[in-house]
Amino acid sequence: MFLEMEIEKKIYSFSEPLSISLSLKMEQGEFAALFGPSGAGKTTIIRMIAGLDRPDQGYIKVDGEYWYSYERGICLPPQKRSIGLLFQDFGLFPHMTVEENLFFAFEKVGKQEKQAAESMGKTLGIHHLMNQYPYTLSGGEQQRVALGRTLLRNPKILLLDEPLSALDKKRAFELEQVILRIHQEKKTTTLLVSHEMAEVFGMAEKVYLLEKGHIIKEGTPQEIFLQKKISGKLQFTCQVLEIIDEEGGIILTASLQGKIIQLALSEREGKGLKRGDLIGIAVKAFQPFFLGKIEKNLL
Description:
Helix content is 25%, strand content 36%. The chain has helices at residues 42-50, 98-103, 111-124, 139-151, 169-186, 197-203, 221-225, 267-270, and strands at residues 3-11, 18-26, 31-35, 57-62, 65-69, 74-75, 83-86, 157-161, 189-194, 206-211, 214-219, 229-230, 233-246, 249-256, 259-266, 278-284, 287-293. The chain is globular.
């Protein structure tokens, strides 16, 4: 396994104490997600992987190297861990241009580093913004800059803490596609933290369902989410009525309990879908989310 961790930690807050106790393993190049409600311990877990918080007991092992071990007395500082950490609040330096923010990923900036930053700018579609400052950019553009700076460090593990939550639906979808495309190219082991089912379903290959600091279930998004009810979201079975190809994805029309609904799906989500297929739809606060195609062996 590329990432192995067994950790325990107690957190004391103003509401009630949270006891985190879990075991998690990831293969190299895997894209997994920690899914659960607010307060379940998701962010604390990735902060412990990053070295920003320290477990009370256990170990964290990456690519054969202990980053933390209670028994061995090992706790590498964050700068000694090959991680890329992307938060929801971008974390850009306001007094630096886009180019200078990207350069911050390097210890020194020479010809090779400038070429790498230029190439990353083109990959993320921000190469025309290099001389602009963060305050002139949209939220989606700022998050792309933050993602580029993180990836330029060539981390062994990419940690994404609610990276789309500060964006509107359109920009969140666009950035989701960028993250997926880069993951397919670089195959960086990636752990996403989210409480949004649609976000997890659109990106992750494996899901760890977290509740009160414990992983209560793990599996593919279909295995985790195709249930009657999860985290306050109701799940329904619908039939595909029509599929329209759009740039970067599809528009799906389906019948939900006698009503017609439309969903915008990525190419990955819509791959293989056709008229007449049965799909899973989750609904929360009257908002439908695509869960995936329901195979016959899941009925």
